[in-house]
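Key result, reporting period 2: structure in, sequence out.
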């Protein structure tokens, strides 16, 4: 299976010489992965090469990035080191295989008030607990795109698990993102912060709302999906590189094409469906109760459980 020349850097791609590579790097397009998710049009625009050549370069970038061989044994060894953050509910933990996992993306989608943000708050507190209490003794990067972060809630949830609420708040690095650019840049520049602050959980609440409001109409859909794809790819890279957990929330829309069954579908289409490791669908039930459905998991069966959102946080 020897290739003529191994493609490792962006200048190894056909049609991309040193000058073009430098141009791309100055636009922060510095890896094969980043080129692999561009459209030929976008690549042509930033690099100056023709759309035809861009197509070829993207094709090669895709081929060079997607194939990664690993034995089942080494994968299994790696998985042993995966950390799990307790959700606060025993039933929910069991359903998802012990808790919200590191090295992956957990997505919660559902209508307003279904509990997506509250579950995020609980995880932001619980990740700070010692390992034997369901945490990772790590800190949080919280990207809030909707302005719904509530320190008071964090305080009461912290009190309930006997953590010093002021310390808990200090350990949550909060970013209020008001545009997709801010949201994307926060992740692009997160490496140093993650290492210095021992970040073990990245929360984006919500992942999709800014993308949804900035890219409107059919014409913008392609670009939106492309940007979203790059963004979640970056999330997965950070999750793997630093063994951290990612929790994102997502809105839903009514899909009028579905005549039977539940017409509610999450925003983001295929991009998110493929990127999220674990997908949870949250629904409001009576009073404090919320029904949580496990829609997608790499190894757990589909299932449903009920949690409660109480003054003290998420409970069974
Ligand atoms: P959107 O962001 O609007 O899409 O909804 P969401 O899914 O993020 O909802 P969220 O997690 O914010 O849930 C809001 C619900 O949580 C409220 O309607 C309350 O029922 C419940 N809730 C919020 N704070 C408290 C609290 O202090 N005590 C109790 N018991 N419930 C709370
Ligand atoms: Mg919310």
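The corresponding designed sequence is given below.
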């Amino acid at each position: 299976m020897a290739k003529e020349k191994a493609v490792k850097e962006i200048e190894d791609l056909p049609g991309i010489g040193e000058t073009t590579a430098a141009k791309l790097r100055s636009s922060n397009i510095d890896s094969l992965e980043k080129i692999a998710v561009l459209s030929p049009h976008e690549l042509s625009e930033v690099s100056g090469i023709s759309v035809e050549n861009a197509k070829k370069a993207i094709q090669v970038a895709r081929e060079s990035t997607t194939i990664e061989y690993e034995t089942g044994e080494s994968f299994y060894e790696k998985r042993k080191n995966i950390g799990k953050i307790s959700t606060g509910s025993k039933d929910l933990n069991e359903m998802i295989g012990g808790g919200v996992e590191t090295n992956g993306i957990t997505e919660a989608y559902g209508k307003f008030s279904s509990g997506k943000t509250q579950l995020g708050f609980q995880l932001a507190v619980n990740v700070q607990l010692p390992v034997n209490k369901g945490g990772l003794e790590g800190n949080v990067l919280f990207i809030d795109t909707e302005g719904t972060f509530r320190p008071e809630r964090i305080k009461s949830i912290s009190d309930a698990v006997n953590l010093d609420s002021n310390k808990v708040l200090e350990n949550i690095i909060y970013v209020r993102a008001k545009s997709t650019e801010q949201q994307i840049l926060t992740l692009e520049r997160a490496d140093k912060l993650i290492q210095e602050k021992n970040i073990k959980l990245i929360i984006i609440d919500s992942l999709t709302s800014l993308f949804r409001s900035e890219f409107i109409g059919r014409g913008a859909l392609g670009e939106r999906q492309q940007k979203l794809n790059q963004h979640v790819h970056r999330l997965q890279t950070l999750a793997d590189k630093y063994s951290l957990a990612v929790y994102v929330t997502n809105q839903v829309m009514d899909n009028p094409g579905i005549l039977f069954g539940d017409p509610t579908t999450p925003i983001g289409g295929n991009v998110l469906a493929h990127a999220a490791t674990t997908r949870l669908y949250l629904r409001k039930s009576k009073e404090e109760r919320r029904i949580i459905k496990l829609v997608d998991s790499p190894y757990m069966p589909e299932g449903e459980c009920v949690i409660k959102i109480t003054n003290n946080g998420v409970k069974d």
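The chain is about 40% helix and 20% strand. The CA atoms of residues 142 and 174 lie 5 Å apart. This case is discussed further under Risks and Mitigation.
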